[in-house]
Amino acid sequence: MGVPNFTITQKIHPISTRYVVTEAEGGGEICHVRKKKFQLREELVLWADEGETRPYARVKARNVVDFGGIYEVLDEAERPVGALRRQGMQSLARVRWEILDAGGTTLAVVQEDSLALALLRRFVGLPLPVGFSFTAPDGGVVGNHKRRFGLRDVYDLQVDGIDPRLAIAQGIALDVLEQR
Question: Can you give the pLDDT at residue 93?
């Protein structure tokens, strides 16, 4: 798997869910994310700085509540970068998303790696690590998202050929929007 490689680390905070995204293997910080609790219309701002003064990207739900929701990914000037589309019915057994470019073309399908582990997590409630594969329309694997085993939510994200803002937004969405 090629570069870029990222680490997404969830930080414990009482009134919001926070993440720090860094380049893998001790690289520099790329962005910080703070998701407010109890939002009717989901919105995440990926901040380029810890002081939350410069946006890196934004993720905005198109609708208030949507089982198969579409989340627009916007750049720092709020121009479309692409979108993340949750496959509602197909996500009942295994979580499944699509990463779309700004024109709506599918760049990758993101799906849980193991049906058996997905079912165990859902119906038995076991806190098992979760992994996702990013597959291009031609069937080639272009990335993966793996949760490290441990008490804290730390994910390794590897992508190739996808805008890093889309990949990072998808990586965070897999945790915060799927409530992993």
Answer: 63
For 21, 68, 96, 164, 180, the CA distances from 154, given in Å and listed in that order, are 10, 26, 20, 18, 11
Domain residue ranges of the chain, discontinuous segments joined by +: 5-176
Q: b/e map of 15-43 (b: 16 or more CB within 10 Å)?
A: eebebebbeeeeeeebbbbbbeeeeeebe
What would you measure as the largest C-alpha separation in the chain, in angstroms? 44
Would you state the pLDDT for residue 1?
43
CATH superfamily of 5-176: Tubby Protein; Chain A (3.20.90.10)
Rounded distance between C-alpha atoms, residue 131 and residue 146, angstroms: 4
Mean pLDDT value across residues 21-29: 85
Its pTM stands at 0.87
